[in-house]
Amino acid sequence: MTETRELILLIEDEPQMRRFLRVTFQSQGYRLIEASSGEEGLVAGTTRNPDVVLLDLGLPDMDGIEVTKRFREWSEVPIIVISAREQEEDKVKALDAGADDYVTKPFGAGELLARIRVALRHKILLSAGQQDPLFVADDLKVDLASRQVFIKDEEIHLTPIEYRLLAVLIRHAGKVVTHTQLLKEVWGPVYTDQQQYLHVYMAQLRKKLESEPARPRLLINEPGVGYRLKLNI
Ligand code: CA
Questions:
Q1: Assigned fold of 130-229
Q2: Domain with CATH 1.10.10.10 in the chain
Q3: CA of 13 to the centre of ligand 1 (A)
Q4: How confident is the model at residue 145 (pLDDT cuts 50, 70, 90)?
Q5: What spacing in Å lies between the alpha carbon of 222 and ligand 1's midpoint?
Q6: Which pLDDT does position 127 carry in this prediction?
Q7: So what's the architecture of 7-127 in CATH?
Q8: How many CB atoms lie within 10 A of CB 33?
Q9: Among 88, 95, 135, 220, which is most buried by a count of CB atoms within 10 Å?
Q10: How far is the CA of 99 from the centre of ligand 1 (A)?
Q11: Residue 138: left if φ>0, alpha if ψ -120 to 50, beta else—which one?
Q12: Is the pLDDT of residue 74 over 80?
Protein backbone atom coordinates (compact mmCIF):
# COMPACT_ATOMS: atom_id res chain seq x y z
CA MET A 1 0.00 0.00 0.00
CA THR A 2 1.34 3.44 -0.86
CA GLU A 3 1.36 5.75 2.09
CA THR A 4 -0.78 8.86 1.87
CA ARG A 5 0.23 11.84 3.93
CA GLU A 6 -2.81 14.05 3.78
CA LEU A 7 -3.70 15.67 7.07
CA ILE A 8 -7.24 15.22 8.36
CA LEU A 9 -8.68 17.46 11.07
CA LEU A 10 -11.40 15.63 13.00
CA ILE A 11 -13.72 17.83 15.09
CA GLU A 12 -15.82 15.43 17.14
CA ASP A 13 -16.70 15.28 20.85
CA GLU A 14 -17.60 11.58 21.11
CA PRO A 15 -14.55 9.54 22.22
CA GLN A 16 -15.89 6.27 20.70
CA MET A 17 -16.38 7.91 17.31
CA ARG A 18 -12.89 9.42 17.46
CA ARG A 19 -11.42 6.03 18.29
CA PHE A 20 -13.21 4.37 15.34
CA LEU A 21 -12.05 7.07 12.96
CA ARG A 22 -8.50 7.08 14.31
CA VAL A 23 -8.16 3.37 13.51
CA THR A 24 -9.75 3.86 10.08
CA PHE A 25 -7.42 6.71 9.10
CA GLN A 26 -4.30 5.12 10.49
CA SER A 27 -4.94 2.00 8.39
CA GLN A 28 -5.02 4.25 5.30
CA GLY A 29 -1.89 6.21 6.16
CA TYR A 30 -3.65 9.53 6.71
CA ARG A 31 -2.27 11.86 9.37
CA LEU A 32 -4.82 13.00 11.91
CA ILE A 33 -5.40 15.89 14.31
CA GLU A 34 -8.25 15.54 16.79
CA ALA A 35 -10.33 18.33 18.32
CA SER A 36 -13.22 17.79 20.73
CA SER A 37 -14.87 21.21 20.46
CA GLY A 38 -15.61 23.81 17.80
CA GLU A 39 -13.18 26.32 19.27
CA GLU A 40 -10.37 23.77 19.45
CA GLY A 41 -11.15 22.76 15.85
CA LEU A 42 -11.00 26.33 14.58
CA VAL A 43 -7.65 26.88 16.29
CA ALA A 44 -6.25 23.65 14.83
CA GLY A 45 -7.61 24.69 11.42
CA THR A 46 -5.66 27.95 11.47
CA THR A 47 -2.43 26.58 12.92
CA ARG A 48 -2.09 23.16 11.26
CA ASN A 49 -3.44 23.74 7.72
CA PRO A 50 -5.36 20.45 7.27
CA ASP A 51 -6.19 19.02 3.81
CA VAL A 52 -9.71 18.07 4.83
CA VAL A 53 -11.94 18.71 7.86
CA LEU A 54 -14.38 16.19 9.28
CA LEU A 55 -16.93 18.04 11.34
CA ASP A 56 -19.49 16.69 13.78
CA LEU A 57 -22.59 18.91 13.88
CA GLY A 58 -23.39 18.43 17.57
CA LEU A 59 -20.49 19.91 19.49
CA PRO A 60 -20.49 21.03 23.13
CA ASP A 61 -19.58 24.70 22.55
CA MET A 62 -21.08 25.65 19.17
CA ASP A 63 -22.93 23.92 16.37
CA GLY A 64 -21.29 22.73 13.19
CA ILE A 65 -23.08 25.33 11.05
CA GLU A 66 -21.32 28.07 13.02
CA VAL A 67 -17.99 26.25 12.72
CA THR A 68 -18.51 25.95 8.93
CA LYS A 69 -19.27 29.68 8.62
CA ARG A 70 -16.20 30.60 10.65
CA PHE A 71 -13.97 28.36 8.47
CA ARG A 72 -15.42 29.87 5.30
CA GLU A 73 -14.46 33.39 6.40
CA TRP A 74 -10.85 32.55 5.57
CA SER A 75 -10.50 28.98 4.29
CA GLU A 76 -11.48 26.86 1.28
CA VAL A 77 -10.53 23.59 3.00
CA PRO A 78 -12.97 20.78 2.14
CA ILE A 79 -15.40 20.20 5.03
CA ILE A 80 -17.26 16.90 5.37
CA VAL A 81 -20.06 17.04 7.90
CA ILE A 82 -20.81 14.10 10.19
CA SER A 83 -24.45 14.26 11.19
CA ALA A 84 -26.82 12.17 13.28
CA ARG A 85 -30.34 11.52 12.03
CA GLU A 86 -31.87 14.19 14.26
CA GLN A 87 -29.59 16.76 12.62
CA GLU A 88 -30.92 16.28 9.06
CA GLU A 89 -32.07 19.88 8.74
CA ASP A 90 -28.81 21.25 10.14
CA LYS A 91 -26.91 19.12 7.66
CA VAL A 92 -28.53 20.99 4.76
CA LYS A 93 -27.83 24.32 6.51
CA ALA A 94 -24.18 23.36 6.94
CA LEU A 95 -23.93 22.44 3.24
CA ASP A 96 -25.52 25.75 2.26
CA ALA A 97 -23.08 27.52 4.62
CA GLY A 98 -20.19 26.07 2.62
CA ALA A 99 -19.61 22.49 3.79
CA ASP A 100 -18.73 20.18 0.89
CA ASP A 101 -20.37 16.90 1.76
CA TYR A 102 -21.77 14.79 4.56
CA VAL A 103 -22.05 11.32 6.00
CA THR A 104 -24.90 10.29 8.29
CA LYS A 105 -24.23 8.28 11.46
CA PRO A 106 -23.98 5.32 11.50
CA PHE A 107 -21.75 5.15 8.43
CA GLY A 108 -19.23 2.62 7.16
CA ALA A 109 -15.52 3.31 6.86
CA GLY A 110 -15.67 2.66 3.10
CA GLU A 111 -18.32 5.31 2.56
CA LEU A 112 -16.39 7.91 4.55
CA LEU A 113 -13.09 7.16 2.83
CA ALA A 114 -14.74 7.53 -0.59
CA ARG A 115 -16.09 10.97 0.44
CA ILE A 116 -12.60 11.98 1.61
CA ARG A 117 -11.04 10.89 -1.70
CA VAL A 118 -13.60 13.00 -3.60
CA ALA A 119 -12.90 16.02 -1.34
CA LEU A 120 -9.13 15.69 -1.78
CA ARG A 121 -9.47 15.31 -5.56
CA HIS A 122 -11.42 18.59 -5.66
CA LYS A 123 -8.79 20.29 -3.57
CA ILE A 124 -6.08 19.22 -6.03
CA LEU A 125 -8.11 20.45 -9.04
CA LEU A 126 -8.84 23.71 -7.24
CA SER A 127 -5.21 24.37 -6.32
CA ALA A 128 -4.13 23.54 -9.90
CA GLY A 129 -6.54 26.36 -10.85
CA GLN A 130 -8.18 24.38 -13.61
CA GLN A 131 -10.74 21.79 -14.42
CA ASP A 132 -10.10 19.12 -17.02
CA PRO A 133 -12.05 20.39 -20.05
CA LEU A 134 -13.18 16.84 -20.75
CA PHE A 135 -15.36 15.30 -18.06
CA VAL A 136 -15.91 11.53 -18.18
CA ALA A 137 -18.04 9.38 -15.87
CA ASP A 138 -19.42 6.04 -16.92
CA ASP A 139 -20.98 6.41 -20.41
CA LEU A 140 -21.15 10.19 -20.06
CA LYS A 141 -18.59 12.42 -21.71
CA VAL A 142 -18.84 16.21 -21.60
CA ASP A 143 -16.60 18.63 -23.43
CA LEU A 144 -16.83 21.65 -21.15
CA ALA A 145 -15.13 23.92 -23.67
CA SER A 146 -17.48 23.23 -26.59
CA ARG A 147 -20.43 22.33 -24.31
CA GLN A 148 -20.97 19.07 -26.15
CA VAL A 149 -22.49 16.12 -24.28
CA PHE A 150 -22.08 12.50 -25.34
CA ILE A 151 -23.48 9.20 -24.15
CA LYS A 152 -21.51 6.24 -25.50
CA ASP A 153 -19.93 8.65 -28.01
CA GLU A 154 -23.31 9.68 -29.38
CA GLU A 155 -23.99 13.39 -29.07
CA ILE A 156 -26.99 14.33 -26.90
CA HIS A 157 -28.76 17.64 -27.32
CA LEU A 158 -29.46 19.46 -24.04
CA THR A 159 -31.44 22.68 -23.57
CA PRO A 160 -29.45 25.57 -22.03
CA ILE A 161 -30.99 24.98 -18.58
CA GLU A 162 -30.38 21.23 -18.72
CA TYR A 163 -26.76 21.93 -19.63
CA ARG A 164 -26.34 24.45 -16.81
CA LEU A 165 -27.78 21.95 -14.33
CA LEU A 166 -25.39 19.26 -15.56
CA ALA A 167 -22.44 21.68 -15.52
CA VAL A 168 -23.06 22.61 -11.88
CA LEU A 169 -23.19 18.94 -10.90
CA ILE A 170 -19.97 18.31 -12.85
CA ARG A 171 -18.26 21.20 -11.08
CA HIS A 172 -19.09 19.45 -7.79
CA ALA A 173 -18.74 15.92 -9.20
CA GLY A 174 -18.94 13.22 -6.56
CA LYS A 175 -20.20 15.66 -3.93
CA VAL A 176 -23.75 16.41 -2.90
CA VAL A 177 -25.17 19.73 -4.15
CA THR A 178 -28.17 21.00 -2.16
CA HIS A 179 -31.49 21.97 -3.77
CA THR A 180 -30.84 25.60 -2.77
CA GLN A 181 -27.35 25.62 -4.30
CA LEU A 182 -28.62 24.12 -7.56
CA LEU A 183 -31.54 26.56 -7.84
CA LYS A 184 -29.26 29.50 -7.05
CA GLU A 185 -26.57 28.48 -9.56
CA VAL A 186 -28.88 27.43 -12.41
CA TRP A 187 -31.85 29.81 -12.11
CA GLY A 188 -30.56 32.56 -9.81
CA PRO A 189 -30.93 33.63 -6.16
CA VAL A 190 -34.62 34.59 -6.33
CA TYR A 191 -35.63 31.03 -7.33
CA THR A 192 -34.27 29.16 -4.34
CA ASP A 193 -37.72 27.99 -3.16
CA GLN A 194 -38.80 26.71 -6.59
CA GLN A 195 -37.94 23.07 -6.00
CA GLN A 196 -40.42 21.88 -8.62
CA TYR A 197 -38.27 23.43 -11.37
CA LEU A 198 -35.45 21.25 -10.22
CA HIS A 199 -37.49 18.05 -10.19
CA VAL A 200 -38.84 18.73 -13.69
CA TYR A 201 -35.45 19.46 -15.22
CA MET A 202 -33.73 16.65 -13.36
CA ALA A 203 -36.32 14.22 -14.76
CA GLN A 204 -35.64 15.54 -18.28
CA LEU A 205 -31.91 15.28 -17.82
CA ARG A 206 -32.19 11.72 -16.55
CA LYS A 207 -34.33 10.77 -19.55
CA LYS A 208 -31.57 11.97 -21.84
CA LEU A 209 -28.55 10.66 -19.94
CA GLU A 210 -29.60 7.57 -18.03
CA SER A 211 -30.21 4.18 -19.66
CA GLU A 212 -32.85 3.53 -16.97
CA PRO A 213 -34.15 6.98 -15.86
CA ALA A 214 -36.23 5.46 -13.04
CA ARG A 215 -33.10 3.83 -11.62
CA PRO A 216 -30.45 6.48 -12.12
CA ARG A 217 -26.81 5.45 -11.87
CA LEU A 218 -25.32 8.86 -12.60
CA LEU A 219 -27.69 11.55 -11.31
CA ILE A 220 -28.31 10.39 -7.76
CA ASN A 221 -31.07 11.75 -5.53
CA GLU A 222 -30.04 12.51 -1.94
CA PRO A 223 -33.45 12.61 -0.24
CA GLY A 224 -34.20 15.89 1.52
CA VAL A 225 -30.78 17.31 0.59
CA GLY A 226 -30.11 17.52 -3.15
CA TYR A 227 -28.37 15.63 -5.95
CA ARG A 228 -25.00 14.07 -6.57
CA LEU A 229 -23.28 13.24 -9.84
CA LYS A 230 -21.79 9.85 -9.10
CA LEU A 231 -18.06 9.35 -9.63
CA ASN A 232 -16.27 6.04 -9.35
CA ILE A 233 -13.10 6.87 -7.50
CA1 CA B 1 -21.44 15.16 18.96
A1: Arc Repressor Mutant, subunit A (1.10.10)
A2: 130-229
A3: 5
A4: confident
A5: 23
A6: 66
A7: 3-Layer(aba) Sandwich (3.40)
A8: 17
A9: 95
A10: 17
A11: left
A12: yes
